[in-house]
Automatic annotation (TrEMBL), chain A:
Its cofactor is [3Fe-4S] cluster; [2Fe-2S] cluster. Residues 149-179 form the 4Fe-4S ferredoxin-type domain. GO terms for biological process: aerobic respiration; respiratory electron transport chain. InterPro entries: 2Fe-2S_ferredoxin-like_sf (IPR036010), 2Fe2S_fd_BS (IPR006058), 4Fe4S_Fe-S-bd (IPR017896), Beta-grasp_dom_sf (IPR012675), Helical_ferredxn (IPR009051), SDH/FRD_Iron-Sulfur (IPR050573), Succ_DH/fum_Rdtase_N (IPR025192). Belongs to the succinate dehydrogenase/fumarate reductase iron-sulfur protein family. It comes from the Bacteria. One of its GO terms (molecular function) is 2 iron, 2 sulfur cluster binding. SUPFAM superfamilies: 2Fe-2S ferredoxin-like, alpha-helical ferredoxin. The lineage of its organism: Bacteria, Pseudomonadati, Bacteroidota, Cytophagia, Cytophagales. This is Succinate dehydrogenase / fumarate reductase iron-sulfur subunit. PANTHER family: SUCCINATE DEHYDROGENASE, SUCCINATE DEHYDROGENASE IRON-SULFUR PROTEIN.
TrEMBL record, chain B:
The chain crosses the membrane at residues 63-82, 110-129, 162-186, 206-224. CDD domains: SQR_TypeB_2_TM. Gene3D superfamilies: Fumarate reductase/succinate dehydrogenase, transmembrane subunit (1.20.1300.10). Keywords: Membrane, Transmembrane, Transmembrane helix. One of its GO terms (cellular component) is membrane. InterPro entries: Cytochrome_b-558 (IPR011138), SQR/QFR_C/D (IPR034804). NCBIfam families: sdhC_b558_fam. This is Succinate dehydrogenase / fumarate reductase cytochrome b subunit.
Automatic annotation (TrEMBL), chain C:
PANTHER family: SUCCINATE DEHYDROGENASE 2 FLAVOPROTEIN SUBUNIT, SUCCINATE DEHYDROGENASE FLAVOPROTEIN SUBUNIT. NCBIfam families: PRK07573.1 (NF005749), sdhA_Bsu (TIGR01811). This is succinate dehydrogenase. One of its GO terms (molecular function) is flavin adenine dinucleotide binding. It is an enzyme of class 1 (oxidoreductase). It comes from Algoriphagus boseongensis.
Length: 249, 226, 644
C-alpha cells in the first residue's frame, strides 16, 4: 500500500505547530496503525528528520496510552484503540490525517503526545475507597449481586485513554468521570464516601477545564471499551442527590 | 460561595438548569398547543377568544406564565454560558472531523437551533402576545361579556404568506430541537433506566413531531380556510 | 560474598509470622522522617507506594508512562490465585505453595513461596475492599475459575481484565495517598541510576522525559518495582516501554542479578506477520481446551500451503499431524506451556510451519464447532475470536487460528533476600523485577499474586526492619555521590547523542532480539549460546559506534529513551547467555537440548544445579562473577515431570 500521511507536528507545548505531509510506501495490510508509524519513523530517522512522537505502550488495547485522532475520529474508523487498528481498514492511495487529542485540559506536549494528567487528578479527588492495607473484612463478607458486580465491571473497564474527551464536541470528561463514580456508587464498598466522592470528582473535573455534556452520545459511540452514557446519568443522579443531602456546606 | 451557587455554577448544575427549564417549556408547549387547538373549532373564534382571556387573567395561569418567562430567560442565558464554556474547553479544533458518524446533527447544534427558535419567538411574541397585553385589539361580545378579539388578529396575520412560511419553517427547527432536548433532559436529570428510557425516547420522538406539526397546521389552516 | 537469604528458622508455616514479630518497627512519629523512593507503579510499585504512605513514610513514586495507571500489569488477563478454598475443593495454603514450587520446577525458595501462598488470601480481601469488581456467582459471593498447573479452582478474575482491575485498585489507593500529600508522583520520568553511599542505596538519578532534565532524588530506601525484561527479545507480549534499565543500573551498582536465563515462553500468541511486527499479542491459554494443534504431515504440503496453492481446510485428516496429541496421548493439547511451546518450534524447524514466515502452527476449532455447535464455542471464546479477527483479519470460525509461542514473562531478576532486599542495603526489588518466587517457570495467575503480595503485605514489614536500623536523618542530596551519579548519566546521554551513526535504535534492538530468540529462547545449546555471546559482544560494539539518535536531550526524545533501554538490554542479553551456558541442565523455561530425557523432556540436575545463580557485575567488559545460593528443600520432594 501507498499512503499519504498528514500529521500534526509541534516541537513542544509552546510551539504553534502545523501539518506536515509524508508519503509512505510499502505498507502492508497486516500492519497495525502504530507499526505503520514505526515504519515512517524509521525512514525519517534514516533521512535525519525528527521522528513523529506519539504515545503508545502495551499495543494490545488495554493501557490506554495510544491516542491518535485519525481521519476525524478518535482512534480512527473502528471502535477500538489506535493500537488495535490495522491498515486493512484503509485503502491504497488514501490520505490519512492524524491529529492529537484536542482539549484545553489535554495540552499538547509534542507532536501527537498530549498531557492527560487531568484524569489522574480527577481520580485523586475521590476515585477511591478509603481503606488502608490490611484490616479489611474477608472478601466473601461483602456479598454483591452478580448483576451489580457486572454493571460495576462494565464501568470499571475504562482505560482512561481520553477518546471520550476527544470525541465530545465540548471536550467533556463526563464519561470518564462518571465511569469511576458509577463503579464505586454501585458497589456496597463505595457507599460510605459516596456523596463526597461525587461532589469532589465533579468539582475537579470542572476545575480542569473540561466542557459540559450535551448528551450527543459521541463519547459512548467512540469509546473503545463501550462505556455507556447511562453512567453519566448515574453520575448526575449521584451528584444532585449528594449536593442536596450531604453535610458539605 | 454557598453550596447552592456552587452547585448551580458547576457543569452539572448548569445542565440541571437547562434540563429543568427545558422540561418546563415542554410542559408550556403542551398547554399552548392544546389551547390553540381551539383555532380549528370553526366557531368564528369564540372559544379561542374566551380561552385567551382566561389565560391572561386567571391568577394561577399568571403565575405559570411568570415561570415560563423565567424558564425562557434561564434557558437562554445558561445556554450562552454553557456554549462559551464548552467552546473554551477546546481552543484548537480538529482539522478534520467525522462527528456525524458518532452523533446526531441536532444534538451537536442545539445552540444554533435554539437561536433560530429564539428569533422566531421574538417575532411571535411581538405579533400576538405583546398585542394582546398592550396593543390595540378590537373587542367582541359573547353573551354579556366583552373579549379581546385575538382570533381576528391571528386570522389577519396568517393571511400573509411570508409569516405562514416563517411559522412553518420555525416549527421544523423546533421539532429538531425537541427531538434531542426531550430525552436529553431526562438523561441530564439522571433518569436513565433500561426499563423506562426507551419509552421516554419514543415519547420524545412522537412529541417532537406531533407538537410542531400541530402548531404549523394552525397558520396553514387559517391561510387556506380564510 | 556469601549470599544470605535471611530465611527465618523454624517450621515453614511459622516462618513469616515469627519474622514479622522479630522485625524491628519504626515508631509512628518517626515514620514521617523517612523518605522512600518507589520506581515503577505497576501492581508491586503502586501497592507498595500506597501501603508505605498509609503507614506514614514520605513516598516518591516514579513511572515512565504518562500515568501510573498504565503500567504493564494492566495487560494481565486471566486472574489471580489465592488459597481461599471458597470452592471447598481441597485447596489450602500448603497446596498453593506446593503447586507453585512444583510448577517452578523446584528452583524457588520454599520459604518465599510459602509466604506468597499465605498472604494470597489477604490480597483478595484487600482488593475487594478497594472496590475491585471480581466476578461473582448468583448468590453474590466470589467466583473462581481453574488454571493450568493446579487441580483446584482458586483463580479469582474480573472478566479477561483481571490485571487491569487489580492495577486500578492499587492505583486508586495510590491516588488517595497522592491527594493526602504522602506520595509525590513523577510520571514520564525514567530512573537512570541508583546512588549508593557507603554501600547503602540513598537515592536515584532520573531523567524527565519531557524536558530531559537530569535530577537526583534522595531517600532512605529505594524500591525497584520495574517489571521484567522480556523485551530483550524485541518481540514479546510486554509493552513497548517495558525495560530492564532500572534493574540493570542497580546491578551495575552492586545488586546481584539472579537466574537471568529463566524466561517463560507462552505457547498461544498471534504469530509474527512480517518484519514490521512490533509486539506480540497473547491469546488466552484456555483456547487449548477445545482447539486442536496441528501442522501438515509433510514439508511439501506445508510449502504448498505457504505459497497459497492450498487452503488449510483442504488438507485431509490423514495429511494433518496433531503432534501434541500424537506425542502426549494422555495430556494431548493441554500439556504445560513450556512443552507446548517447544514442540511448536520443533515442527516449524522441520519446515512444517503454516504461515508465510514458516513460524506458526494451527489451532483448529473445526472439530469443536462440529461437536458442540458454533454457539457453545462462541460463548466460551467469543471475545478471543473477535480479537483474533481484528488483528489478523481472519475468521477463526471458518479457518483455523494460527499461533506461535512468544516471550511472556521473566522469572529471573534482581537477587533479593527474604526481606526483598537486594545485595545493596536499602535497595529492594519487588514483583517481576526480583527473582524470588517462581523458580524456573511461573504458573498462570501467579504473577499478579506475587506483585501484590510484595507490595501490600511484605515490604511494609520488611522495610521497617531496615529503616529502624538507620537514623531518621534527612539524606542530603549535596553528597558528592549524587553529583557523580548525575554526571555519569549526563555523560552517557551525551555519548549516545554524539555517536551520530547510521542505524536506528530499533535496528539494533531487532538484531539483539533475533540472537536471543534463536539461541537463548525456547531451546538452547552450548554451541548456540557461545555463538550468541560473541554476536552480542559484536553487536554492542556496533551499537556504541553506529547508532543514530536524532534530536537533543532537552526535549521529548523517544529515540533517546529507547537507546538507553536497548543499550542495557544488550548487556543483559550477554548475561542471560552466560547464565544459560552455566546451567547445564534443563528446568522449566530453560531447556538445554543436551539435557533431555529420551522422550525429549526437560532433564533437571538437582545434584549440581539446585541453586540460585546470582551474578555480580565486575566492571565494563569483565566476565561477571557467579555466586550460588543453594536451594534447600525441607518440605517437598523433588520429582520429574511427565505428561505422556
Amino acid at each position: 500500500m501507498k499512503l499519504t500521511l498528514k500529521i500534526w507536528r509541534q516541537k513542544n507545548a509552546s510551539d504553534k505547530g502545523g501539518f506536515v505531509t509524508y508519503p509512505v510506501d510499502g505498507v502492508s495490510k497486516d500492519m497495525s496503525f502504530l507499526e505503520m508509524l514505526d515504519v515512517l519513523n524509521e525512514q525519517l530517522t534514516e533521512k535525519g528528520e525528527d521522528p513523529v512522537h506519539f504515545d503508545h505502550d502495551c499495543r494490545e488495547g488495554i493501557c490506554g496510552m495510544c491516542s491518535l485522532y485519525i481521519n476525524g475520529k478518535p482512534h480512527g474508523p473502528l471502535q477500538t484503540t489506535t493500537c488495535q487498528l490495522h491498515m486493512r481498514s484503509f485503502n491504497d492511495g488514501e490520505t490519512i490525517t492524524i491529529e492529537p487529542w484536542r482539549a484545553k485540559a489535554f495540552p499538547v506536549v509534542k507532536d501527537l503526545v498530549v498531557n492527560r494528567s487531568a484524569f489522574d487528578r480527577i481520580i485523586q479527588a475521590g476515585g477511591y475507597i478509603s481503606v488502608r492495607t490490611g484490616g479489611v473484612p474477608d472478601a466473601n463478607e461483602i456479598p454483591i449481586p452478580k448483576t451489580i458486580a457486572d454493571l460495576a465491571m462494565d464501568a470499571a473497564q475504562c482505560i482512561g485513554c481520553g477518546a471520550c474527551v476527544a470525541a465530545c464536541k465540548n471536550a467533556s470528561a463526563m464519561l470518564f468521570t462518571s465511569a469511576k463514580i458509577s463503579q464505586l456508587a454501585l458497589l456496597p464498598q463505595g457507599q460510605v464516601e459516596r456523596k463526597t466522592r461525587a461532589e469532589k470528582m465533579v468539582a475537579q473535573m470542572d476545575a480542569e477545564g473540561f466542557g459540559a455534556c450535551t448528551n450527543t452520545g459521541a463519547c459512548e459511540a467512540e469509546c473503545p471499551k463501550g462505556i455507556s452514557i447511562t453512567n453519566i446519568a448515574r453520575m448526575n443522579r449521584e451528584y444532585f442527590s449528594a449536593v442536596v443531602s450531604s453535610d458539605n456546606v | 460561595m454557598s453550596w447552592v451557587t456552587k452547585t448551580l455554577s458547576s457543569s452539572l448544575g448548569r445542565k440541571l438548569i437547562m434540563a429543568l427549564t427545558g422540561l418546563f417549556l415542554i410542559l408550556f408547549l403542551t398547554g399552548h398547543v392544546s389551547g390553540n387547538m381551539l383555532l380549528f373549532k370553526g366557531d368564528g373564534g369564540e372559544a379561542f377568544n374566551i380561552y385567551a382571556k382566561f389565560m391572561t387573567t386567571n391568577p394561577a395561569v399568571k403565575l405559570l406564565s411568570y415561570l415560563t418567562y423565567i424558564s425562557v430567560i434561564g434557558h437562554v442565558i445558561y445556554s450562552i454560558v454553557l456554549s462559551q464554556k464548552n467552546k473554551s474547553a477546546r481552543p484548537i479544533g480538529y482539522a478534520e472531523s467525522k462527528a456525524s458518524t458518532s452523533s446526531a446533527w441536532n444534538s451537536r447544534n442545539m445552540g444554533v437551533l435554539g437561536t433560530i427558535i429564539l428569533i422566531f419567538l421574538v417575532v411571535h411574541l411581538q405579533g400576538f402576545w405583546a398585542k394582546m397585553h398592550w396593543g390595540e385589539v378590537p373587542m367582541v361580545t359573547y353573551g354579556e361579556e366583552e373579549y379581546k378579539n385575538l382570533y381576528l388578529i391571528v386570522n389577519e396575520a396568517f393571511k400573509q404568506e411570508w409569516l405562514v412560511a416563517l411559522y412553518v419553517i420555525s416549527m421544523g427547527f423546533l421539532g429538531f430541537h425537541l427531538s434531542h432536548g426531550f430525552a436529553s433532559a431526562f438523561q441530564t436529570l439522571g433518569l436513565n433506566h433500561k426499563k423506562y428510557t426507551p419509552a421516554i425516547q419514543a415519547i420524545g420522538k412522537v412529541y417532537s413531531i406531533l407538537v410542531p406539526v400541530l402548531f404549523a397546521a394552525m397558520p396553514l389552516y387559517i391561510y387556506f380556510t380564510s | 560474598m556469601i549470599l544470605d537469604s535471611k530465611i527465618p528458622a523454624g517450621p515453614l508455616a511459622e516462618k513469616w509470622t515469627k519474622h514479622k514479630f522479630t522485625s524491628k518497627l519504626v515508631n509512628p512519629a518517626n515514620k514521617r522522617k523517612y523518605d522512600v523512593i518507589v520506581v515503577g507503579t505497576g501492581l508491586a510499585g503502586a501497592s507498595a507506594a500506597a501501603s508505605l504512605a498509609e503507614l506514614g513514610y514520605n513516598v516518591k513514586a516514579f513511572c515512565f508512562q504518562d500515568s501510573p495507571r498504565r503500567a504493564h500489569s494492566i495487560a494481565a488477563q486471566g486472574g489471580i490465585n489465592a488459597a481461599k478454598n471458597y470452592q471447598n475443593d481441597g485447596d489450602s495454603v500448603y497446596r498453593l505453595f506446593y503447586d507453585t514450587i512444583k510448577g517452578g520446577d523446584y528452583r524457588a525458595r520454599e520459604a518465599n513461596v510459602y509466604r506468597l501462598a499465605e498472604v494470597s488470601v489477604n490480597i483478595i480481601d484487600q482488593c475487594v475492599a478497594q472496590g475491585v469488581p471480581f466476578a461473582r456467582e448468583y448468590g453474590g459471593l466470589l467466583a473462581n475459575r481453574s488454571f493450568g498447573g493446579a487441580q483446584v479452582s482458586r483463580t479469582f478474575y474480573a472478566r479477561g481484565q483481571t490485571g487491569q482491575q487489580l492495577l486500578l485498585g492499587a492505583y486508586s489507593a495510590l491516588s488517595r495517598q497522592v491527594a493526602a500529600g504522602k506520595v509525590k508522583l513523577y510520571p514520564r520520568t525514567e530512573m537512570m541510576d541508583v546512588v549508593v553511599i557507603d554501600g547503602q542505596a540513598k537515592g536515584i538519578v532520573t531523567r524527565n522525559l519531557i524536558t530531559g532534565a537530569v535530577e537526583t532524588h534522595a531517600a532512605h530506601a529505594v524500591l525497584l518495582c520495574t517489571g521484567g525484561y522480556g523485551n530483550v527479545f524485541f518481540l514479546s507480549t510486554n509493552a513497548m516501554g517495558s525495560n530492564v534499565t532500572a534493574a540493570w543500573r542497580a546491578h551495575k551498582r552492586g545488586a546481584y542479578f539472579a537466574n537471568p536465563c529463566f524466561t517463560q515462553i507462552h505457547p498461544t500468541c498471534i504469530p509474527v506477520s512480517g518484519d514490521h511486527q512490533s509486539k506480540l499479542t497473547l491469546m488466552s491459554e484456555s483456547l487449548r481446551n477445545d482447539g486442536r494443534v496441528w501442522v501438515p504431515r509433510t514439508q511439501e504440503i506445508a510449502d504448498k500451503l505457504r505459497k497459497g496453492q492450498i487452503k488449510a481446510n483442504d488438507i485431509k485428516d490423514e495429511d494433518r499431524d496433531y503432534f501434541l496429541e500424537r506425542k502426549y496421548p494422555s495430556f494431548g493439547n493441554l500439556v504445560p506451556r513450556d512443552v507446548a511451546s517447544r514442540n511448536a518450534k520443533y515442527v516449524c524447524d522441520e519446515g512444517r510451519g503454516v504461515n508465510e514466515t514458516g513460524e506458526a502452527v494451527f489451532l483448529d476449532f473445526r472439530d469443536a464447532i462440529k461437536r458442540d455447535g458454533r454457539d457453545v464455542i462462541e460463548q466460551k471464546y467469543g471475545n478471543l475470536f473477535d480479537m483474533y479477527k481484528q488483528i489478523t483479519g481472519e475468521d477463526p470460525y471458518q479457518v483455523p487460528m494460527m499461533i506461535y509461542p512468544a516471550v511472556h514473562y521473566t522469572m529471573g531478576g534482581l537477587w533479593v533476600d527474604y526481606n526483598l532486599m537486594t545485595t545493596v542495603p536499602g535497595l529492594y526489588a519487588l514483583g517481576e523485577a526480583n527473582f524470588s518466587d517462581h523458580g524456573a517457570n511461573r504458573l498462570g495467575a501467579s504473577a499478579l499474586m506475587q506483585g501484590l503480595a510484595d507490595g501490600y503485605f511484605v515490604i511494609p514489614y520488611t522495610l521497617g526492619d531496615y529503616l529502624a536500623s538507620i537514623p531518621p536523618k534527612k539524606v542530603e542530596e549535596n553528597h558528592p555521590e549524587f553529583e557523580k551519579a548525575k554526571a555519569d548519566v549526563k555523560a552517557r546521554i551525551q555519548k549516545l547523542l554524539s555517536i551520530n551513526g547510521s542505524k536506528t535504535v530499533d535496528y539494533f534492538h531487532k538484531r539483539l532480539g533475533k540472537i536471543m530468540w534463536n539461541e537463548c529462547g525456547m531451546a538452547r545449546t552450548e554451541e548456540g549460546l557461545k555463538k550468541a555471546k560473541a554476536d552480542i559482544q559484536a553487536l554492542k560494539k556496533e551499537f556504541w559506534s553506529d547508532v543514530k539518535i536524532l534530536g537533543t536531550n532537552e526535549e521529548l526524545n523517544q529515540s533517546l529513551e529507547k537507546a538507553h533501554r536497548v543499550a542495557d538490554f544488550i548487556e543483559l542479553g550477554e548475561l542471560m547467555v552466560d547464565d544459560a551456558l552455566n546451567r547445564n541442565e534443563s528446568c522449566g523455561g530453560h531447556f538445554r537440548e543436551e539435557y533431555q530425557t529420551p522422550e525429549g523432556e526437560a532433564l533437571r540436575d538437582d545434584e549440581n544445579f539446585a541453586y540460585v545463580a546470582a551474578w555480580k557485575y565486575m566492571g565494563e567488559g569483565v566476565q561477571e562473577e557467579l555466586n550460588k545460593e543453594p536451594l534447600v528443600f525441607e518440605n517437598v520432594k523433588l520429582t520429574q515431570r511427565s505428561y505422556k
